[in-house]
Specification:
Elements (H helix, E strand, L loop, with lengths): L2 H7 L3 E3 H6 L4 H9 L4 E3 L3 E3 L5 H8 L3 E2 L1 H7 L12 E3 L16 E3 L16 H11 L2 H13 L5 H8 L4 H8 L8 H12 L4 E7 L2 E7 L3 E6 L7 H16 L3 E6 H6 L1 H13 L11
Parallel strand pairs: 5-6, 9-10
Antiparallel strand pairs: 1-3, 2-3, 4-5, 7-8, 8-9
Helix pairs in contact: 5-6, 6-7, 7-10, 8-9
């Protein structure tokens, strides 16, 4: 048995009985702990030394990592303003955190996929159900879009799930559009839609996709936290903006921080541009 591969497939943590079922004796498991190749987690589990801390915390609490905590572990977009751990627990769960400051968010709602006793990270369908209930509408849509964009599931699968889920889940799915490259783009699109402004994502202009287009001429670009901070990428973005302006487009570019945390400014700039008709193509004379 390739122990590291198996641990990786189990998110870095397993019950001791699982290893014994796969041929490791208790003596061998203890020897691996002594050698530092495994670390004990409570009396019944062991973990790889590089097992993510949130996974170990969930195991120690007798819970599963869920909602946005599980989504972050899977590499999906999550909001940056919620640092708490989110756990999925049974309805009879009664453990308390040592302090209010360390108390995780507990999710007890019914989920579509049953989980086994050794599962420490919830499966994606369950994660999405909890996200839809827990997060702000635009954040939930952004996370769902991230899953679609990364091909973790298809839109038809989401729609199939929605038929058996809450109205809130159905509303999130109805707003999904997996074309967005980043969560802040989805947040931007949903927030604009809430005030009646339609932004079409990932429209190709001058041979390059733009984050969004309002009307015929108002291009919206939303820089993420990662690649846009690179000087080479930033210079390329500015060249693209200049080319689009020469072609008659109005270009507005916002940072992810502005979209997520300074929305009043973003909204005022877009509304101001539309008030001047900058989203409309010039009328032909005569």
């Amino acid at each position: 048995m390739l122990l590291n591969d198996y641990l990786r497939s189990r998110d870095g943590i397993v019950r001791r009985v699982e290893l014994r079922d796969r041929g490791l004796t208790s003596y061998r498991i203890n020897a691996l702990i002594e050698a530092g190749e495994l670390i004990p987690v409570g009396r019944n589990r062991v973990a790889h030394p590089q097992c993510p801390a949130p996974v170990i915390a969930a195991a120690q609490a007798g819970a599963r990592l869920g909602c946005i905590s599980a989504a972050a572990l899977r590499g999906l977009w999550v909001p940056d303003d919620d640092r708490r751990l989110h756990f999925a627990v049974s309805h009879g769960y009664s453990r308390r955190a040592p302090s209010e400051d360390s108390a995780p968010v507990l999710h007890r709602s019914h989920v579509p996929v049953p989980t086994g006793a050794g599962q420490t990270v919830d499966v994606l369908p369950n994660v999405l159900v909890h996200v839809a209930r827990c997060q702000r509408l635009e954040y939930a849509v952004a996370l769902f879009d991230s899953a679609l964009n990364q091909r973790r599931l298809e839109l038809e699968e989401l729609r199939g799930m929605a038929a058996k889920q809450s109205r809130r889940f159905q509303r999130v799915v109805a707003l999904c559009d997996g074309r967005a490259d980043a969560g802040n783009e989805s947040v931007l699109r949903v927030r604009l839609g809430q005030i009646g402004i339609v932004m079409v994502p990932q429209v190709v202009i001058d041979g390059h996709p733009v984050d969004g287009l309002i009307g015929e001429r108002l291009v919206i670009q939303s820089d993420g936290f990662g690649p846009h901070s690179d000087p080479v990428r930033r210079a390329r973005d500015l060249r693209q903006d200049n080319r689009m302006r020469l072609r008659g487009y109005e270009v507005q570019r916002f940072s992810a921080v502005q979209v997520l945390h300074r929305w009043d400014y973003v909204e005022s700039m877009i509304v101001g541009a539309m008030a001047q008709g900058l989203h409309l193509a010039p009328r032909r004379r005569g």
